[in-house]
Amino acid sequence: MYIQRSFEKDNAKLYLVATPIGNLGDISFRALEILKKVDYIACEDTRVTIKLLNYYDIKKPLISYHDHNKYEAGVGIINKIREGHCVALVSDAGTPCISDPGYEVVRSAIENEIDVVPIPGASALTSAIICSGLAPQPFTFFGFLEHKKQKKRKQIEEIKYHPYTMIFYESSHRFKETIQLMSEIFEERSCAIVREISKKFEEVYRGLINDVNAYYEEIKGEIVIVVEANTHPQHPDNSLLEMDVIEHVNYYMEIGLSKNDAIRQVALERKVAKRDVYNAYHQQN
What is residue 204's predicted lDDT score, i.e. its pLDDT? Predict the structure, then answer.
């Protein structure tokens, strides 16, 4: 066990610094202070990060850290911190670790009892949900779906009865295929398509998911899809009811629900008391 108290001592740390997702003004004073203070800045693409640093006249050595070198580069980052240097980790845009590299080096830092300090800021998923008009909590963030169509279809079918608002990231060239699958599987649900957040061509579509492809002949930019929760949880897929209670609870936990929420959902679908599901689950676990 290691208890981190971020402000008690001035030791070498790993800072996770959120950067703008479009508008360069969307960065905090604290984030700029940290970027000026640290010894190194680890980033996905040095060409992208240098533009932000030049804009704010920050000159620091850069470490390339991305999906293809995250293990080797992560070792280098940890070694620099152990030598007494502070390192800031940034992604190309938004908050590190959220559909961006960072998780592995964070885990490694924790294992080495290195303080990991979040510097909050811009995040596309939170920006999208607050302007979507859909229930902002509870929600589940799924990030990017599978690239291959059949795998993606299976993913969407598995969350058809998900009881929380759902948030997805998608690229412009896979967007229409994804929306087509969602309209087939989710059917007539409200959604919001939020693209180019904070940029000149920011746009928010609000309407039924079935109508999205008719509106967009083509789409460009960074896209967030927000989809209404299942509004008819009392009518689950019959295959779920054919599972035993334990499998049924585990199914919902695997798609993102907490244990208590999964138990509540299973009790609702099976029309039994929540305590009965709870007892049955804990007798086996």
Answer: 97
pTM equals: 0.82
Angle between helices 245-254 and 259-270 (to 10 degrees): 130
pLDDT band at 232 (very low <50, low <70, confident <90, very high): low
Compute how many other C-beta atoms are within 10 angstroms of the C-beta atom of residue 182: 26
- Domains of the chain, CATH where assigned: 13-122 (3.40.1010.10), 125-227 (3.30.950.10), 238-284 (no CATH)
Give backbone dihedrals phi and psi of 149, rounded to 5 degrees, phi first. -60, -45
pLDDT higher at 15 or 267: 15
Helix 274-284 and helix 259-270, axial crossing angle in degrees, nearest 10: 120
> What stretch of H or E contains 163?
none
DSSP state of 250: H
Angle at 74 between CA 223 and CA 123, to 5 degrees: 25
**What is the C-alpha to C-alpha distance for residues 147 and 150, in angstroms, rounded to an integer?**
9
How is residue 215 written in tokens?
């509106």
